[in-house]
Amino acid sequence: ATPTAVMVATGVGANNGVLIKGGDALERAQKIKYVIFDKTGTLTQGKASVTTAKVFNGMDRGEFLRWVASAEASSEHPLAKAIVEYARHFHFFDESSPTYGGQSNSKESTTSRWLLDVSEFLALPGRGVKCFIDGKQVLVGNRKLMTESGIPIPTSVENFVVELEEGAKTGILVSFNDSLVGVLGVADPLKREASVVVEGLYKMGVKPVMVTGDNWRTAQAVAKEVGIQDVKAEVMPAGKADVIRSFQKDGSTVAMVGDGINDSPALAAADVGIAIGAGTDIAIEAADYVLMRNNLEDVITAIDLSRKTFARIR
Ligand code: ADP
Ligand code: MG
């Protein structure tokens, strides 16, 4: 392609909200063989919401949620935000609570009066959070967090979590001191265009793959919904770049689509890094392409544009 053709293609991209950082990236996109999608916030809306809150030890549900929300209040994770939001709503409509907000208070002011003091807060990437409340150790996170902390998971709890995961939900376990006291189920719906884009990629001869830190059962359920056959689950934040490199081993051109801080090493490692415009600045900086419309259909637009620009008569 001539420099003029590259300039025109870059302009066409820009008009469609596809920002391309340079002609090399534009050229590489035509050869993409694998598109590795991050799950949370990329294939899914990244708007998680709690669908279930189950307490196993007879504790009052409002009080349970107050403890869990207090532990998660300092976390930036989308799951944490969903939990705090749910607990706040639950509390707001719970008239029996001593700090009931009633009609006259905003939810915000209610929350600040109702959250408990937390000490020694620790965010554990790929696992959850850990802190102390009222002298008790509180853990909120996945199985790995519980197992590594030596907290046994009773069979009844395990069965409940499996049920959530088979329904494409993420199960979040909660322990106080050394015992498991409850489980939350969190759902994060797919973006509406996700399955159409996945089908489109297969038709173009490109293989979509999903990568996630979430557990394999939830990952498998989400992959099935969206139509992706190849899934890498329970990948620790630092491991996404290794997943990219494993697909590059045979010389294949690999694209990564992601939105989070966690995704930036993988976006940089990929031959073509594609960031969602609504994603974090670090991801956008690490990428070669930015999708300003936050629409996954533009992954196809990007590949098409490159193929058309560099198409040669053979
Ligand atoms: P993803 O790749 O899906 O964005 P992360 O690596 O951020 O996943 O997290 C992986 C898993 O770690 C989550 O699915 C969840 O089980 C657990 N986790 C991480 N942070 C938290 C948190 N603040 N609260 C509860 N669980 C968490
Ligand atoms: Mg993400």
Automatic annotation (TrEMBL):
Task: Classify the source by domain of life.
Answer: Eukaryota
Q: Cellular location of this protein? A: Membrane
Similarity annotation? Belongs to the cation transport ATPase (P-type) (TC 3.A.3) family. Type IB subfamily.
Name the record gives this protein: HMA domain-containing protein
Its ancestry begins with:
Eukaryota, Viridiplantae, Streptophyta, Embryophyta, Tracheophyta
* Section covered of the full-length record: 621 to 934 of 1003
